[in-house]
Write a structure and sequence with these properties.
single chain; Immunoglobulin-like; Rossmann fold; eight-stranded mixed sheet; five-stranded mixed sheet; 17 strands
């Protein structure tokens, strides 16, 4: 399991009965989690002190019960010499605008970017590492890559999420970083980039299980992910650095991501592929809670 254990501003305190108790900075939230199928005793006092609880509806969806929670607040993550700062706010379907488990991937690809940037500088090559972040949401991966000097193209179908990502960049001291912020359908953007002959040293893809683009374009991961991997492989540079797919789709095993990466990337570029569950430690038990999967490729 790829485990994000480097947080100080976030932790899962406990998990039981289909819910997890989380600390986001100074605030405690209780949110549902389908992976938590066990019913252990809730001994942590935080369960009774939560600032907000998300109640799942039996008919689908749900709603927040707010006790004492601001409309917006911030937490930070230390990545190398940078403090990445994220705006949080509770919104529909239990989310806060950040997936903390992704920090383990930020650590992985930022190390690769630093290493390549150092190699280029020693060779007198001033070109930055170029990274494409698709389905980029509120920009956690974009900001992580930009913080270590990458030139990032950030693409998401939601204008609101993209504006939120820009706010996170400014809060992290990266308002002037070389980031292109694009509101677009990811597949259509990739197809245009192929026609333009664009190339990237690293690609990050965080596709939803189901969604629609800004003009109603349909996305369904089981039907479209393989084709998207094939298309994006065409955007990798002659000497690519890394490729990352994240998945939160129930039933899509990590081995599926490994298979896709081997089929479309390893056969073409060589290198190494690995896919595992992504998780977060639970403080009260010392165990890890699975939070999706990640498929990684990196050059030899």
């Amino acid at each position: 399991m790829f485990t994000a254990s480097g947080w100080t501003d976030y932790e899962i305190l406990d998990a039981s009965g289909g819910e997890k108790l989380e600390r986001w900075g100074e605030y405690l939230l209780v949110r549902p989690d389908p992976q938590v199928i066990w019913n252990t005793k809730r001994l942590d006092p935080g369960w009774k002190k939560a600032n907000a609880i998300y109640h799942r509806s039996k008919s689908g969806g749900g709603e927040w019960e707010f006790r004492n929670l601001p409309k917006q607040w911030q937490i930070s993550y230390r990545l190398g010499a940078s403090d990445l700062t994220f705006h949080l706010k509770p919104f529909s379907f239990k989310h806060t605008g950040l997936f903390p488990e992704q920090a383990v991937n930020w650590e992985w690809f930022s190390g690769l970017i630093r290493g390549e940037d150092g190699r280029r500088r020693r060779a007198g090559d001033e070109r930055p590492v170029r990274v494409l972040n698709l389905f980029a949401y509120t920009g956690g991966a974009t900001i992580a890559a930009a913080s270590v000097g990458a030139a990032v193209t950030h693409v998401d179908a939601s204008k609101g999420m993209t504006l939120w990502a820009k706010e996170n960049a400014v809060s992290s001291g990266l308002g002037d970083a070389p980031v292109r912020w694009l509101v677009d359908d990811c597949r259509k953007f990739v197809e245009r980039e192929i026609r333009r002959g664009s190339r990237y040293d690293g690609i990050i893809m965080d596709p939803p299980s189901y969604g629609r683009g800004p003009k109603g374009e349909l996305w369904k991961i089981e039907d479209m992910l393989h084709d998207m991997v094939k298309l994006t492989a065409s955007l990798l540079s002659d000497r690519p650095l890394f490729y990352l797919i994240n998945s939160y789709t129930t039933g899509l095993a990590p081995a599926v991501l490994t298979y896709l990466i081997h089929t479309e990337i390893v056969k073409r570029f060589g290198g190494h592929a690995d896919a595992q569950e992504v998780g977060l430690p639970v403080t009260d038990t010392g165990l890890n809670l699975p939070c999706g999967a990640a498929g990684r490729w990196q050059a030899e």
